[in-house]
């Protein structure tokens, strides 16, 4: 049972054994029916390349606790197809996984919990690769800079390529004869990994390598200002003056270093803060809107719905339902 009524229902991943799937060459993990429709399948597509398909719709706020001991360095590419979940590490680090986004992380050990919102459907595909596998296909040292940290590290988080989403849907709808399904899935997975990691290599060359250190510091200083003053943010002109540049240059370095615009970053900061308020402190929508700088709750609700794919009232209802469990 949860320690208190506001906590998510916690379950250790090791308490739910993996079983051989009856209809595929895969391992299947299914949570008890009392927790909702929650299932994962893991396929080994290639040496050191695994593919995990996750579909969760819990009936209560849920936290899946896991601990992975030190091992060979790995990179995980997560494609969010539907919904929103988050990983909360032991060092208070949080990683959000959203529909339409590709998140690339690296680690050689991890401990924390994957958290899911009650009555909210989540579908994700994860591709797990060792550093040795990556170097075999991309060349020695291709992603060396991504593996410098021992703990879980977010390497990249950006909108998924259209081709990757199409390939992911094809994997889920694979209706070929059983003898051909594994080969088809491997081909689609390789296409997704090549596309998403190829974009990462391009970004590293065009932005990180060529961008002057002074411009990086400028973008990070502006980012920190927005993260602190998101409720009453400065205008683009004011923000530019405070970091010592002009609006055109500021937008340029944001695009190159942060892969977004100042307004796009501000919106993400506000929405993530609002999500935390609505989910963990049970704020009504109007107060959450005010807390993140919106004068009109209707404008906030529309922005929240566009950002997460569901209205804030749905999150409020789920939070209240979870607190009553």
TrEMBL record:
Biological classification of the source: Bacteria, Pseudomonadati, Pseudomonadota, Gammaproteobacteria, Methylococcales
SUPFAM superfamilies: Homeodomain-like (SSF46689)
Keyword Transcription regulation: yes
Keywords: Transcription, Transcription regulation
Gene3D superfamilies on file: Homeodomain-like
Signal peptide annotation: none
Domain (HTH araC/xylS-type) ranges: 220-318
InterPro entries documented for this protein: Homeodomain-like_sf, HTH_AraC, PchR_regulatory_protein
Domain of life, per lineage: Bacteria
Species in which this protein is naturally found: Methylomonas subterranea
Protein name: AraC family transcriptional regulator
């Amino acid at each position: 049972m949860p320690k208190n009524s506001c906590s998510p229902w916690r379950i250790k991943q090791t308490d739910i054994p993996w079983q051989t799937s009856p209809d595929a060459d895969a391992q299947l993990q299914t949570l008890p029916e009392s927790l909702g429709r929650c299932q994962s399948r893991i396929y080994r597509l290639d040496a050191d390349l695994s593919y995990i398909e996750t579909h969760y719709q819990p009936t209560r706020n849920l936290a899946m606790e896991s601990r992975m001991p030190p091992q060979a360095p790995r990179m995980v590419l997560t494609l969010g197809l539907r919904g929103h979940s988050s990983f909360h590490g032991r060092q208070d680090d949080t990683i959000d996984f959203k529909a339409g986004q590709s998140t690339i992380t690296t680690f050689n050990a991890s401990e924390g919990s994957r958290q899911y919102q009650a009555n909210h459907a989540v579908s994700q595909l994860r591709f797990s690769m060792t550093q040795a596998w990556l170097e075999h296909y991309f060349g020695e040292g291709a992603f060396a800079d991504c593996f410098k940290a021992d703990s879980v590290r977010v390497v990249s988080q950006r909108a998924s390529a259209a081709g990757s989403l199409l390939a992911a849907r094809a994997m889920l709808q694979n209706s070929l004869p059983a003898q051909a399904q594994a080969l088809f899935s491997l081909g689609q997975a390789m296409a997704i990994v090549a596309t998403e990691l190829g974009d990462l290599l391009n970004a590293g060359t065009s932005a990180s390598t060529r961008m002057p250190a002074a411009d990086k510091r400028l973008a990070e200083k502006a980012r920190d200002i927005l993260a602190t003053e998101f409720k009453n943010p400065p205008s683009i002109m004011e923000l530019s003056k405070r970091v010592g540049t002009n609006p055109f240059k500021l937008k340029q370095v944001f695009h190159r270093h942060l892969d977004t615009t100042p307004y796009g970053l501000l919106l993400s900061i506000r929405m993530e803060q609002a999500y935390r308020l609505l989910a963990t402190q049970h704020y009504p929508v109007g107060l959450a809107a005010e807390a993140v700088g919106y004068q009109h709750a209707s404008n906030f609700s529309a922005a929240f719905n566009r950002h997460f794919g569901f209205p804030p009232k749905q999150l409020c209802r789920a939070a209240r339902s979870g607190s009553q469990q």
